[in-house]
Write a structure and sequence with these properties.
By secondary structure, the protein is an alpha/beta fold. The protein has a single domain (4-187), classed as Dihydrofolate Reductase, subunit A, CATH 3.40.430.10. The protein has helices at 30-40, 50-63, 71-82, 107-115, 128-136, and strands spanning 4-11, 15-17, 45-49, 84-88, 100-103, 122-125, 142-148, 156-157, 168-175, 181-187. Helix 1 (30-40) runs parallel beside helix 3 and helix 2 (50-63) packs across helix 3. The longest helix is centred in the N-terminal third of the chain and has 14 residues, at 50-63. It is globular. Pfam families: RibD_C. This is Dihydrofolate reductase.
Length: 189
């Protein structure tokens, strides 16, 4: 069975963005890009909420074509163009979208059907609202968190309305020179 792994940058106090969606506090550099790039290159399915998907769609398909494209832009743009995308949205339609499936209802059934298909783990990128929905239905199997050395004090939290305790098992940690710490957990079911 495939697993859904939530990939998220968070502040030390557990926020994934500022109150208005600000993400300018996230530290990302070549060391983190290289590390994340190796891990996601092994995946063939990405899961997004509508807002994050639209943000990705506006940038990654042509990122490699820009004269200022970095090595990371080129590599991630190639990966993004070939990866199968799943978008959680009640308002989008998948007519004409390439390699993209929209899930707007029956979240648990649709996600479990995808998890039962052959393939690698499904990476859930950002997408706080989508993550909240999946957490509430016990559909996330792991958390790949990048804890940034900042306390925001307010914003959009990663964990809200948790009904039952979620026990985790720490798989790996890594400290980056930027001060970001990676915490890789699996849900201990």
């Amino acid at each position: 069975m495939r697993k859904i792994i939530s990939f998220m940058h968070i502040s030390l106090d557990g926020f994934v963005s500022g109150p208005n969606g600000e993400m300018d506090w996230i530290k990302v550099d070549e060391e983190i890009f290289d590390y994340v790039g190796k891990r996601i290159s092994e995946g063939n399915t990405a899961l997004y909420g509508r807002v994050t998907y639209q943000m990705m769609e506006n940038y990654w398909p042509t990122a490699a074509d820009k004269p200022t494209a970095t090595k990371h832009d080129i590599e991630h743009s190639k990966w993004y163009s070939k990866v199968h995308k799943i978008v959680l949205s009640k308002t989008m339609k998948d007519a004409g979208l390439t390699n993209t499936k929209i899930i707007g209802e029956n979240l648990s059934n649709n996600i479990n059907e995808i998890k039962n298909q052959q393939g690698q783990d499904i990476l859930l990128f950002g997408s706080a609202t989508a993550t909240h929905s999946l957490i509430q239905q016990n559909l996330i199997d792991g958390y790949w968190l990048f804890v940034n050395p900042i306390i925001l004090g307010k914003g959009i939290p990663l964990f809200v309305d948790i009904k039952d305790k979620i026990k985790l098992k720490l798989l790996t940690t890594r400290q980056f020179t930027s001060g970001v710490t990676e915490l890789n957990y699996t849900v201990d079911k």
